[in-house]
Amino acid sequence: xxxxxxxxxxxxxxxxxxxxxxxxxxxxxxxxxxxxxxxxxxxxxxxxxxxxxxxxxxxxxxxxxxxxxxxxxxxxxxxxxxxxxxxxxxxxxxxxxxxxxxxxxxxxxxxxxxxxxxxxxxxxxxxxxxxxxxxxxxxxxxxxxxxxxxx
Amino acid sequence: xxxxxxxxxxxxxxxxxxxxxxxxxxxxxxxxxxxxxxxxxxxxxxxxxxxxxxxxxxxxxxxxxxxxxxxxxxxxxxxxxxxxxxxxxxxxxxxxxxxxxxxxxxxxxxxxxxxxxxxxxxxxxxxxxxxxxxxxxxxxxxxxxxxxxxxxxxxxxxxxxxxxxxxxxxxxxxxxxxxxxxxxxxxxxxxxxxxxxxxxxxxxxxxxxxxxxxxxxxxxxxxxxxxxxxxxxxxxxxxxxxxxxxxxxxxxxxxxxxxxxxxxxxxxxxxxxxxxxxxxxxxxxxxxxxxxxxxxxxxxxxxxxxxxxxxxxxxxxxxxxxxxxxxxxxxxxxxxxxxxxxxxxxxxxxxxxxxxxxxxxxxxxxxxxxxxxxxxxxxxxxxxxxxxxxxxxxxxxxxxxxxxxxxxxxxxxxxxxxxxxxxxxxxxxxxxxxxxxxxxxxxxxxxxxxxxxxxxxxxxxxxxxxxxxxxxxxxxxxxxxxxxxxxxxxxxxxxxxxxxxxxxxxxxxxxxxxxxxxxxxxxxxxxxxxxxxxxxxxxxxxxxxxxxxxxxxxxxxxxxxxxxxxxxxxxxxxxxxxxxxxxxxxxxxxxxxxxxxxxxxxxxxxxxxxxxxxxxxxxxxxxxxxxxxxxxxxxxxxxxxxxxxxxxxxxxxxxxxx
Lengths: 151, 658
Hints:
Chain A is of the alpha+beta class. Chain A contains 4 helices and 7 strands, in the order H-E-H-E-E-E-E-E-E-H-H. Helix content of chain B is 61%, strand content 12%. In chain B, strands 3, 4, 5, 6, 7 and 8 form a 6-stranded antiparallel β-sheet that branches.
């Protein structure tokens, strides 16, 4: 085999490996994608009962309840509201009127069981996903960004 | 008045930076000694001006000058002094000013200490460094002015986000930035060398200490951030594959590759193009990290503002810098000849292997971090997704195993042509340590998982390999003419630093394995006097007190943790409420022992039906956490030791004949 052929073979093998690697990576991504929906979007999507996804909205005033180590609360996007149950310590930034994200799955009765509740935030106390969705559906209120919703 | 001075000198700094970006370069082209030397002075002046500007901002925070918007938004008169100061970089504008301060500091450091670097190269490096400075100074002045005044002046500020009021986080951003921005030196050296068209072993020798310093800072900065997340967020974990964590980890992976490839440039004048490319890419990833975090494109506690104009500006800087450098690389790289050969089994091969796996690992993390952004962009904002830790665990970890396993072998191989036969005895010894460790772990922790035992074995394999290589390098068991200590003192600090850093990886693996494979978590609610049992431990809630801190109210739990052998410890987790920000934080109580951390969080209280008060309690046993932090500390120490090698100093280019 000439040097030129050797080099060609090397390039082809490398490209093949690169392609294979990329395919494996992309399939790993597909398996681990966690989609984000708002309560009103859930109805339109056909979501299987065990599918893990994230749901985001604003915690409805007066709906936070605790029993044993379970907490439950309602999330709303001002169109639809969904009730969420969660076992564990709610994050530091969790409170009524706050935008939060919960990760988990739907139960048969239409409630959401969260394995994780995120109240990560910027200074506006509103997760970006939630803010974007509210803005695109026209339900965004300027007072959210000014942190006055709670006053 | 003082803020106006701060703003004015920042403008002056921009002008100086613009001159510095051009004059030394022209001097280098014309071989004009005077113009080249001017670069040194300009670099020092630029650093001086930015320091004045930064100091005036610190002053405004310390005296709580609420006529400044940035102080009003991020500070409060009741805040402790440390957090008034750390409030300077706890926001977008201030942190960008810190970024530029560090950038100009590195330029000035080169100007002052880099005396033996060839004058033309040094002039070009200072020029390139200053071009980056111009871009970021303009960014601050035109989109993120930290010295904006407010009228009327508010009576008090809005306070810094309470989660950020923590000593760990006060020092996390400066360290991280020292790392990020430190790689700008490697970048400037690479671009300057491409312009000059000459890369040799001296270049490798000059660029290495800067890359090493940046690596040390970045490692320490990431570790400090991770430690903060561990004790402050109260989630019991230390790494979440959060996009912002990834943004700092991506340049770390490439920077580590750069450290290893620059050794080949220095010792063998090989991998020259590749090393230059790595230097460019590492800093590009630092810029990308800055863009991801600062543009507000990611959702995270790190995102202080969402301002599209700023995002666009940083994106522009990103395109010009990366595009320009890569374009230059494409044009100039062919003239740089690599004229060296090495056998498939050799130190060069081992370092190539290291670079290959680190680069693949970096690509995996990069893809997982950016994919959600691509998908959101492609679907016009309709599809919002996130990629969870499982993706990183199944793709990234398998790539890291062959990489770290090779640590035991690589340093044993000789340059040019290694003979694997000579290593049989050494490797047999390392393999023996590995098997014995697996056996011991399986006996001590019979419930498994087996993978955890194998992982501990991997750590033993690396540690044994490192120690054997070190022992044979300093001829520990061959004491004839001089004493062992004498040899240790004479032995190369930089090589010992490498061994120490590699040992750090072995220790880190012990920590990571223990903390992820054997973690125990229990979440429950407890009334006063109630006891829960976890493994051999019983945890009792004794009492809950209410108190006051400097700028918060607190609920403080008193728990006693009793082990089966009756040794007992008292733990005090806290829940703090900050009235100014109307926000609560948890202060986990962490008891660290050599074998495990006991980690306790107290949540909100509530009344039960029978009128008892109950608190949500989360209790973790995190085995081996101490070793995780010790491992990172050892890596940092190894880097520092290597950096302290005088033969490798910034200004000593002369290669000793062996």
